[in-house]
Design a protein that fits this description.
The complex is a heterodimer of chains A (397) and B (370). With 397 residues, chain A is of the alpha/beta class. Chain A is built from 19 helices and twelve strands. Chain A folds into two domains: 264 residues, Rossmann fold (3-Layer(aba) Sandwich); 86 residues, formyl-coa transferase, domain 3. Helices cover 39% and strands 15% of the residues of chain A. The chains are: A alpha/beta (397), B alpha/beta (370).
């Protein structure tokens, strides 16, 4: 038994901001049918890395990890007959998810009012950069846009330096997580009231939410870098590995004493400059230099294990390789190895939770249009001849 | 009536579950937050940010929670007691088959790091995101705020809602264990997979976005601040921006480029740099407001980089009522904080916009007493 085995989802979303939400739901047992088209290929299928030929729509490992456990049908939504097929899918679904540009669903005749006419209790989740209302509702942008509009970019980077944009779209991560929560909340409400609803999830607003602690500060905070207003030391220090670093955060004075004992530095434990968290923060430059001299003598993993044994929060800074090889991620099922017809055996991420009675069940991502016949004939009751004709006429393409 | 009207959530907060409880409260659940000794060391603004709207209580040190009446009344317990009080975990659910018990831990209970202490910083270090954040010649850098805790908190809310959905079908509660480490790693959608397929290990590249042979700039100074925009393979966007520059006679060689025939990732770095210098000179003459308006109108994908105060006063967010005034019951001070999580079409009863003072409770205190 899986948590969402009774839920059907018609997924019109693409790239990252919608598909990550439907992955959460599919990995937990929802039947998610991804509506795609060869005429307007999901850009996720064009995103590296690839297994071999990058022009193969089924060779993207990026797509594969973002779309686990889903089914794929190809429907050309620029064709009116394609839209009619999509309506049949919507009648089957409990939830519809989309992240097209504002107005697209209305223009093709699949706006919320039409969806309600097809199925009054339908839940429609729309994910966009700025939301569906307000002066910026028509804004065209990306996950990085949300970092700029939410304060993330301004607060990222080193103090005194220009804003920083890391090379990943954090808005494409946070917004779909909020979309998952919104959809599950709407399902709970529907179970109680029988009512569906339209959920409007902006990428900017969730990004503001996850900075709520900075917005709560009485004074406009400075960029924090790796510092903390309470804990000290609280930084990243060099180790003797190649580009090796260790993060150490000391939450209180007893951890400070433990850190000094772990490094066999009893004099520092009683040094007035470092005796309290406040004095350590006030002398952070000297503190960081002293600690860096010590951390350079060790490898990150060994030192992190030693400090943790002493009760001090510490961890190596992991990179792509050390993540891939990490014993906990592999042993505890964060990565599961799935066989894929094009990628072969490859590691895919699973939900970061263990449910005692309804464990997740992660399957491989679908090939483009792999389930068109299964979904339309076996599930929706179209005739095989009808499907073949529509495929030949590029309506199902 | 709200999405989660009538659902009772008891939260043992210590960082990892705080945003999860806050999300469930915003969706209409009745949330009681038990303040731990460790949490009382946290700065007041973090309490304000994550606990407004909740009923806050304190319990006596060492209380045997298995016998508590508040747990008898709860639908969901969010549990971030560190180290996890394993001796009482089973006791919490004993005799309460409908209870949903969501436990958040830094690492998996069965994994090699199960007994390691953790903070937001150390979890972010383990996420693989810090190694690619920052400047090439400086140490790895974390994201602002406490993002590992936030990512875990959202997963905690997801876990609670999944289990609630199952309970509605079966009548049975269950235990869900959420790993903060795995929650943080899940946000890193690129590094492990790039290593698996290319053998490449990502490094810090500052504000350069490196794809293929070349790197493109992401942050640009303008007349009164910064904007973000990158040369990416989107011909219509490139044509739209160059059209405006051509009208203003500042496009130079860019006006003659066939953007359909260009693949930025395959263009030599010195060519990219030359083109970028033309864009840079244009941006430097424009204000943030001018560039933002042009981007919205012409679909450039350019965004103004806003500081926190800009965001609080942003006309778009004001029209969407994102910020709500939250009153601190202890001081009477009001602070604008993010309120609604998303917009939706059914009626909503927003929670009280107040940070309540914590009140002491005993084993016999019931939900209705608070």
């Amino acid at each position: 038994m899986t948590a969402l085995q009774d839920i059907n989802i018609a997924d019109f979303s693409w790239v990252g901001a919608g598909p990550r939400a439907t992955k959460d739901l599919a990995d937990n047992g929802a039947t998610v049918v991804k509506v795609e088209s060869r005429k307007r290929l999901d850009l996720g299928r064009r995103s590296p890395p690839f297994a071999g030929d990058s022009s193969n729509a089924d060779a993207s490992a990026f797509f594969a990890q973002t779309n686990t456990s889903k089914y794929s049908v190809t429907i050309n939504l620029s064709e009116p007959r394609g839209v009619e097929v999509a309506k049949s899918l919507i009648a089957w679904a409990d939830v519809v998810v989309e992240n097209f540009g504002p107005g697209f669903m209305d223009r093709i005749g699949l706006g919320y009012e039409e969806l309600k006419r097809i199925k009054p209790e339908i839940i429609l989740a729309s994910v966009s950069v700025a939301g569906r209302t307000g002066p910026m509702a028509g804004f065209r942008g990306y996950g990085n846009s949300a970092a700029a509009h939410s304060g993330h970019a301004a607060m990222s980077g080193w103090p005194g330096h220009e804003p920083h944009m890391p090379p990943f779209a954090y808005g494409d991560v946070i917004a779909p997580m909020f979309a998952t929560v919104a959809i599950l909340g709407a399902l709970e409400e529907r179970a109680r009231t029988g009512q569906g609803q339209h959920l409007d999830i902006s990428q900017i607003e969730p990004m503001v939410h996850v900075l709520a602690d900075l917005y709560a500060e009485a004074d406009e905070p400075e960029k924090p870098g790796n510092g903390d207003p309470v804990m000290s030391p609280h930084n990243v220090y060099p180790t003797r590995d190649d580009d090796g670093w260790i993060a150490i955060s000391v939450e209180n004075d007893s951890q400070w004493q433990a850190l000094c004992r772990a490094f066999d530095q009893p004099n520092q434990a009683v040094d007035a400059r470092f005796a309290s968290a406040e004095s350590r923060r006030n002398n952070s430059t000297e503190l960081d230099e002293w600690l860096s001299d010590l951390t350079r003598q060790h490898t990150a993993e060994t030192l992190a294990a030693d400090l943790c044994r002493a009760g001090v929060p510490a961890a190596p800074v992991l990179n792509g390789k050390t993540l891939f090889d990490d014993p906990e991620l592999n042993r505890c099922g964060h990565f599961t190895t799935l066989d894929h017809p094009v990628l072969g055996a490859s590691k895919m991420p699973t939900p970061p939770m263990q449910m005692s009675d309804t464990p997740s069940c992660v399957g491989r991502s679908p090939l483009l249009g792999e389930h068109t016949r299964l979904v339309l004939v076996d599930w929706l009751g179209m005739s095989p001849e009808q499907v073949e004709t529509l495929q030949r006429e590029e309506v199902l393409a | 009536m709200s999405m989660l009207s009538g659902i009772k959530v008891l939260e043992f907060s210590n960082g990892l579950v705080d945003l999860g409880g806050r999300m469930l409260r915003e969706m209409g659940a009745d949330v009681i937050s038990v303040t731990s000794e460790r949490a009382s060391d946290r700065p007041h603004w973090r309490t304000l940010a994550w606990h407004h709207g909740k009923t806050r209580v304190t319990v006596p040190e060492g209380a045997d929670l298995g016998q508590w009446a508040l747990i008898d009344d709860a639908d969901i317990v969010l549990d971030d007691r560190r180290p996890a009080h394993t001796s009482t975990l089973d006791e919490l659910r004993a005799g309460r088959p409908g209870l949903i018990h969501v436990i958040a831990r830094p690492y998996s209970a069965s994994g090699p790091y199960h007994d390691r202490p953790a903070s937001d910083l150390t979890l972010m270090a383990m996420s693989g995101l810090m190694t690619i954040t920052g400047e090439p010649n400086k140490p790895p850098l974390r994201l602002p705020g406490e993002q590992a805790y936030a990512l875990t908190g959202i997963q905690v809310a997801t876990a609670a809602l999944l289990a609630l959905h199952v309970r509605r079908r079966t009548g049975q509660g269950q235990r869900v264990e959420v790993s903060a480490f795995q929650s943080a790693v899940l946000a890193n959608y690129r590094e492990a997979i790039m290593y698996e397929w290319t053998g490449r290990i990502g490094r810090r590249t500052g504000n350069q976005l490196v794809r293929g042979k070349s790197g493109v700039r992401q942050v640009w100074p303008c007349a009164d601040g910064y904007v973000t925009w990158s040369m990416i393979d989107n011909p219509s966007m490139m044509r739209s921006m160059v059209a405006v520059m051509t009208e203003r006679q500042v496009a130079g060689e860019l006006a003659d480029i066939d953007w359909e025939a260009i693949l930025v990732a395959d263009t030599p770095q010195d060519t990219i740099d030359r083109w970028q210098s033309v864009f840079g000179r244009f941006f430097a003459t424009q204000t943030r407001a001018e560039l933002g308006a042009l981007s919205l109108e012409r679909g450039w994908g350019l965004s103004v980089i806003k500081n926190l105060d800009d965001v609080r006063r942003d006309a778009h967010l004001l029209e969407r009522y994102l910020f709500v005034p939250v009153r601190d019951e202890a001081s009477g001070v009001e602070t604008p904080l993010p309120g609604p999580l998303f917009h939706h079409t059914t009626a909503d009863e927003p929670p009280a916009r107040v940070l309540r003072k914590p009140v002491p409770v005993t084993a016999s205190t019931r939900w209705g007493d608070l």
